[in-house]
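Hello again, I could really use a second opinion on something today. I've been puzzling over a protein and I'd love to understand its fold better. I'm sending you its amino acid sequence along with the backbone structure tokens. It would help a lot if you went through both lines with me. I've dropped the whole record in just underneath, so have a look.
***
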Amino acid sequence: MSPSRMAATATALLLTLTATAANGAVRHVAWAGMVLGTDGSKIRGEVEMLAGKDAGTSVVEVSYARDAAGAVRPWHVHVGSCAKGGPVLGAASAYPVLRVDGTGAADGKATLRLMLPDSGSFYVNVHESASAMSKIVACGDLLLEE
């Protein structure tokens, strides 16, 4: 994890703990998972969903490697699981496309206008392209980290 990502994670953790202490409510800190290629794709990476800096927001960060250089990939967090599917979490427009660099790596960040969920099932998927949204090249279930 890069130093800037570690700093952002630490900030989100501090904000979550501060909100917990102020409200007296127990809130979970993060959701995280592995992003793995599907149908022969060699993509490997990570996804994390944290409380946002602003009240009522969540931030999702995804990073991965081993993709086709130059690819442009739509991605979203969904309610459900890779095995069962489900609707997009938040507004689909909140997720900027992933632009794969010359080494096959990509990373992205989305800010959702919803409080970090403390229960449920969620997963991330990475689509082939804007014109081939039904083809998923990578998927990963998120697990609640307490």
Observations:
- The two ends are 20 Å apart (CA to CA).
- Residues 1-22 have pLDDT under 50 and may be disordered.
- The helical segments are 3-23.
